[in-house]
Amino acid sequence: MKPKPTLKQIAIAGELSRWFKKNSRDLPWRRNPEPYFVWLSEIMLQQTQVATVIPYFNRFITQFPKVEDLARASIDEVYQLWAGLGYYSRARNLHKGAQAIAARLANNQGFPQTRAEWLEIPGVGEYTAGAICSIAYNQREAIVDGNVVRVLSRLYRIEKLDAKKEAIWELARSLVQVPKTSPRVFNQAMMELGATVCRPKNPDCTQCPVRKSCAGKAHPEKFPEPKAKKVFKRIEEEKWILLTEAKNERSVFLRSNPEGKWRAGLWDFPDAGSVPGVTRAKLMDQFSVNYVVTTHKVNRKHQVYHVGGAHLKNVPIQGKWFLLDDLPGVPAPVRKAIRSLNRTLK
Q1: Helix or strand or coil: residue 305?
Q2: Rounded to the nearest 5°, which phi and psi values hold at 43?
Q3: Which residues contact 86 (CB under 8 A, 6 or more apart)?
Q4: Is 275 a residue whose pLDDT tops 90?
Q5: Are strands 296-306 and 233-246 parallel, antiparallel or unpaired?
Q6: Is-contact 257 269, C-beta < 8 A?
Q7: Confidence of residue 346 (pLDDT cuts 50, 70, 90)
Q8: What letter would DSSP give residue 300?
Q9: Which of 130, 217, 223, 180 is closest to 9 using CA atoms?
């Protein structure tokens, strides 16, 4: 027998739900919360802001209106649409997940409908499974993401969190069970509150619908305890940009990153020194770009070579030439280098 909700839980669930119905943002995946759209948006939203995701989501559903369309696409097509969104393991899991769902549909099993079934889909964890089940199917499944952690930590004055955030999960499970509330509405309300009102810094407590129930409203930024400041490791990379020209069109040589390396499967410049004989080609330019990956600050140095005539024979086949105006999905540091290169070539 489930315990009865407390008066505080009833107040929080009710006030948040009413607030969300009046104040929720108009987001494309909310207009039609079918499982495919909800799953796609939740994968994209992992560690990424809503404003960044919206144009990517719209492009994906335009090119792949059904999950079967995404499943049939090549991974390069997926990377090309994903380029710039970062954390490319999500794109790989999205593609694998689409294939897994398409296989279910082909076997007349339909989309996954329970938390357990969604957890079998590549790239879907406890939060994502709960989000899909509650938003797409209106099931009473809990969710815990960064916004929910912050909201519940402040509401209940939880300063220290364990690695699994068990106290937060327990609260989320109890709150989503409050009768006469919609799980779809309540879960999105918690995320919406954390994103727009109960922000990490400078929360707008005057606009909070549950401020009367908030135990941490006097010092909200203390809850949860701020994370330790990131310590960045500095890394140096050296790449060669190999260019060739034919019929007034320039092409660049790229290789696919092997498994086990950053951005596995994505096209990248070859490592310096990895292409025999290229240093005898014409050196056109040298420049560096800087970028950050999780806790790494990377300085990437480039040497740009014009490769033509006999030197083309030195370029191995373990790669491919791409027109500069028609690149595949490439990661941010490659796009950044190409922009610098285009300025040089003008």
Answers
A1: strand
A2: -65, -45
A3: 47, 48, 332
A4: no
A5: parallel
A6: no
A7: low
A8: E
A9: 180
